[in-house]
Amino acid sequence: MAEQFQNILIIDDEKAMRHMLRLVLEPHQYRVTEAANGVEALTAIERERFDVILSDIRMPDMDGLSFLDQPQVRNLDSTIIMMSAYGSVDTALDCMKRGAYDYISKPFKPDEVLLTLRKAEERQQLRMENQQLKTELSKQGQSFTTDRIVHSGTEMQQILQLVKAAANADSPVLISGETGTGKELIARALHGESDRTGEFLAINCSAIASGLLESELFGHMKGAFTGADREKQGLFSIASGGTLFLDEIAELPLDLQPKLLRVLQEGEVRKVGATKAEKVNTRVVAAAGRDLHEAVEKNQFRSDLYYRLAVVDINLPPLRQRPEDIILLAEYFLGELCRKEGRQMLRLSEQDKRQLTSYQWPGNIRELQNYLEKALIFSSGETLELPPLRLRQDVSLSDNLADFSLKEAAQRLEKEYIRKALDRTGGNRTKAAQILEISLRSLMYKVKEYGID
């Protein structure tokens, strides 16, 4: 029985497809509503709330992509999964950019639909558990400070001293650095070292459609646009008294940049559809993974907003420029992973250390952490087995473009990991599910889908 998603809307112009999906889903205790196109679907979502929406792309009157673009759909908290017999990787990416959670190519097996729903349920459950954990930590008064940032080099020490010095100022802070260098950790440390008693909230400016971002940041009034059936507080208001972290600030749409500048200058926000502004006391910390100077020169980012954000400018060095921190970070991550898995502490050999320090780590700290996690999964006994870094990619790409299928590559990698996990646990599927960090039910579906003995 479905644990999270129960009420499902199926949008497809083919009656036979809707009937087939109903036959697949209803035995698993899903309640199914049907719509023949996007127009009918809009009427349905006005009548009731759906946990998940399965939508075809090619339909008359209103197709699936147009349905995704509707304001009332963008404002839904439903999980949307798209379907098409004419899709490609570009089509799938387009659906994701418009807010869809996943994409299924037709024709598909019934188990594939069920598996996609199970994965979405697990994702929703993890999000709920993560939010509960954050709430609990907030109640306990725990905060992230500079003492929890692993380092040994003088450059990082100077950066953390700057964080402490700037923590209690109200001025905005701009954190720059490559992907994976720990920009959000520095933002959390700025909040944790401050006297601010409000929340720390984070938003990725590149992950939310521009049409929704203004409402997310500033809020909206009831009736401000189609689908705005209630007043909504924006993140600036919710984080008043605390800190708002704006990640990927370089991707903030140009039409929103003057509105953000006004908040920084005046300390007030105006909800979409409101006639009056309200005062907020929100500390803004922004992060950029690319050069904002270059974005300003290309007229992609306002110069006045840049200088207002960069009152305090923190530039995080890439891991390749912090060789003295690589082993310290590796040992820290290894210890955390062993404790998490209930494993005996594994040590890095001298050869391991030479291998780790001789690599450039283009993905920085995040790549190092992921690499060690994979190494631990497939290490047995008391010896840590580090795969050669020159072979760190699990899926080798052929020079033939016909092989550049993300879906097939992901399936090959998933199948390989499942086989290795089962081999390591002697075929114990419960333990294999634990080290793969998926539910036993999902593992059973995948074993059946891939025909693994």
Automatic annotation (TrEMBL):
InterPro entries: AAA+_ATPase (IPR003593), AAA_lid_NorR (IPR058031), CheY-like_superfamily (IPR011006), Homeodomain-like_sf (IPR009057), HTH_Fis (IPR002197), P-loop_NTPase (IPR027417), Sig_transdc_resp-reg_receiver (IPR001789), Sigma_54_int (IPR002078). Residues 149-377 form the Sigma-54 factor interaction domain. The keyword Acetylation does not apply. The modification 4-aspartylphosphate is found at D56. GO terms for biological process: phosphorelay signal transduction system; regulation of DNA-templated transcription. The keyword Cytoplasm does not apply. GO terms for molecular function: ATP binding; sequence-specific DNA binding. It comes from the Bacteria. Keywords: ATP-binding, DNA-binding, Nucleotide-binding, Phosphoprotein, Transcription, Transcription regulation, Two-component regulatory system. Residues 7-121 form the Response regulatory domain. SMART domains: AAA, REC. PANTHER family: ALGINATE BIOSYNTHESIS TRANSCRIPTIONAL REGULATORY PROTEIN ALGB, TRANSCRIPTIONAL REGULATORY PROTEIN. This is Two component, sigma54 specific, transcriptional regulator, Fis family. It comes from Malonomonas rubra DSM 5091.
